[in-house]
Amino acid sequence: MGFLTNVLEFLKDILSEPALLIGLIAFIGLVALRKPFHKVLTGTLGPILGYIMLSAGASFIVANLEPLGAMIEKGFHIQGVVPNNEAVVATAQKMLGVETMSILLLGLILNIVIARFTKYKYVFLTGHHSFFMACLLSAVLGASGLSGALLVMIGGFILGAWSAISPAIGQKYTLKVTDGDDIAMGHFGSIGYYLSAWVGKFVGSPKDSTEKINIPEQWSFLRNTTLSTALTMCVIYLIAAIAAGSEFVSTLSDGVSPYLFAIMSALKFAIGVTIVYNGVRMILADLIPSFQGIATRIIPNAVPAVDCAVFFPYAQTAVIIGFICSFAGGIIGMLILGFAGGVLIIPGLVPHFFCGATAGVYGNATGGRKGAMLGSFVNGLALTFLPALLLPVLGDLGFANSTFGDVDFALIGILLGQAGNLFTTAGIYAIVFLLVLILIIPNFIKTKTVTINHVDEDTNM
């Protein structure tokens, strides 16, 4: 029994590590294409190293956002709950470690089975988000009265089903973002991005793209994404540092001059974004060609669903616009909660950067500059109100003052939590039955293409 547990733990570690999961998929695809050994080796290592680079950049961004968040809380006297996926996951692992691990493994397997035998041809490659969702499912389903094998089977099915369905919901928008590149959104903030794209349709035109903003020649250096990001963030960091006061900032700066510390943190943030961009390029350079092996030999027409940061290079100006407007939406949402007497959800800079930036990219794809601004602003509101609604559900489960930050987690947690509270296990079974219908019905009706919402190259739809 101990050996089996160790094996399951080892498999969980591999499958919850996105770099290794992407490398494994690339390896399988290259072997299926019968590539020579040296191409299998380089084609496998490329996505792994690219994702490690992306993760390093993301960690650098997070590390330099933390002092900014502290300065904003101090300078503007804000106290409340900061949505944090990792905090909830850490608590869930202590309480439901075996259940979470089992749901994760079953969910990943069922995602592949669903991609093979239904019209939902999306293989979800963002392993850490699958792990986060497995934690949420184990906690909410356990509180609804499920336990043991039944909890694992239902949780694994919901994870596998949503991993295939969520990329399909907005693939028509993803194709606009990527200009037809064969990738999909594999991130559980997806509903927020699709909402941003939907809003963008009504407020602007993709012809007015953020990437076409006219910049006078003397300001042409701002087209360099690293420089423009650095300058924008310097302004934001300095405002936060001045508001917080030099005495407080000194407690964060480890002896460095407070305002120099703010500037250096802003510059490091910009470098983190650049590292992310370079990591994405490495991933896509090898992953998409190798995935052809999966798509042609193992799962016909398969599409890789990848992390949200992979979409940043498609509209780099929209990334910064999306972050700023999403954060503004978070502040407005927090003020509304305050006036309504609810728990304050403090805008977390990490979800507002990664999710807000992606929402900006999606909003820009359908509505240009106005779409990027208003779409990401709406996403920012969602990142405030949905975690606030999820908080009571998680509080009842023992996760006091903790809540998930991304939209899909909140929506699924609220839906399952309310179904369990109102109808006990019958409500959960009803949701499972609905997901089964969503997966099966398209197989018996005529759709435009084999892959739902996927581009038809012949008709350019």
UniProtKB/TrEMBL annotation:
Membrane topology category: Multi-pass membrane protein
TM regions (residue ranges): 14-33, 40-63, 101-118, 130-163, 183-204, 225-244, 256-277, 321-350, 371-390, 410-441
Subcellular locations according to the entry: Cell membrane
GO cellular component, one term: plasma membrane
Record keywords, A-Z: Cell membrane, Membrane, Phosphotransferase system, Sugar transport, Transmembrane, Transmembrane helix, Transport
An individual GO BP term: phosphoenolpyruvate-dependent sugar phosphotransferase system
Pfam (any one): EIIC-GAT
Major location (coarse): membrane
Subunit and partners: Homodimer.
Role noted for this protein: The phosphoenolpyruvate-dependent sugar phosphotransferase system (sugar PTS), a major carbohydrate active transport system, catalyzes the phosphorylation of incoming sugar substrates concomitantly with their translocation across the cell membrane. The enzyme II UlaABC PTS system is involved in ascorbate transport.
Family of the protein in this entry: Belongs to the UlaA family.
UniProt name for this protein: Ascorbate-specific PTS system EIIC component
